[in-house]
């Protein structure tokens, strides 16, 4: 694996790096106060971090009320290197490249012509150029991979419902493309990591992200730590069985087969006898088409019940929903919240994820940056 000597940091150096990440612009004096480390030691650490090109000095801050020299401010050097985060979605590979400070360098969407993992890897070989440094000192530092499936604690994909794994180890295959640190993680878990980081200032210690797309998954943050379960299957709520009466017989279905976004669209297309784009669905909804309004009302009620059950089991402070349809139809979120409140008076925040388009990819960027720096704490503010 590619070794970068500049990333061989001791614990105090990592703590200082984390302080600079989390405060954007910060002085030596403030770092000394925040970490309770004397100024001389902080100055020595910062000199080494500057030599390693991990941090930059960027002008001066305001002097204190008593006057005196204006403090020199420090920031993360975005040109130290970059990371790649990719999401193996149903019909495409979504990729973002981020500078070391988290700033987005570029975004690519690569269509998939089939669902085989070998096809995914062929496309990645074509698009990832490890010789390209993008104006950074060290080039590619690491790759983070988001999948819509189950990843065990050994970073192995054990279930991928929408793609054919073909007995391929994606981790080992990516190492053949780029000899850098690699993370593979479930997309809902990465979205949860992003939300925990994004809302750190609100002191939200326990939260759930609910991803509603082709299936339904949940990312669980408990005491500010990602909870994965014994084999990485925590949060697979879409596989929960619910009873359904069909032709006077009770049968059981996975809940995601009934109330995922894809299940909703499928029901609508069958009842309307037409294919639906998101634009067409929105128009029918706002035109108050009876079938569309009826199906979306049922969808809202089912999601509200699902959230109620999650709330009773996990008791979070906040639940963040990542669903393109709800993002496009804000009325649906209000309907879900209203229905939820008919079952409980518990005060839990229910809202859309902070970044519907990029929350999973930015969570992946956060995770791989932490791995590169060997920082375990979720808090690393981009």
UniProtKB/TrEMBL annotation:
Signal peptide region: none
PANTHER family, per the entry: BIFUNCTIONAL UDP-N-ACETYLGLUCOSAMINE 2-EPIMERASE_N-ACETYLMANNOSAMINE KINASE, ROK (REPRESSOR, ORF, KINASE) FAMILY
A Gene Ontology BP annotation from the UniProt entry: D-xylose metabolic process
Family annotation (Pfam families): ROK (PF00480)
SUPFAM superfamilies (alphabetical): Actin-like ATPase domain (SSF53067), Winged helix' DNA-binding domain (SSF46785)
Name of the protein in question: ROK family transcriptional regulator
Superkingdom of the source species: Bacteria
InterPro entries: ATPase_NBD (IPR043129), ROK (IPR000600), ROK_cs (IPR049874), WH-like_DNA-bd_sf (IPR036388), WH_DNA-bd_sf (IPR036390)
Family classification: Belongs to the ROK (NagC/XylR) family.
Keyword terms: Carbohydrate metabolism, Xylose metabolism
Function: Transcriptional repressor of xylose-utilizing enzymes.
Name of the gene encoding the protein in the UniProt record: xylR
Gene3D superfamilies reported in the protein's UniProt record: 3.30.420.40, Winged helix-like DNA-binding domain superfamily/Winged helix DNA-binding domain (1.10.10.10)
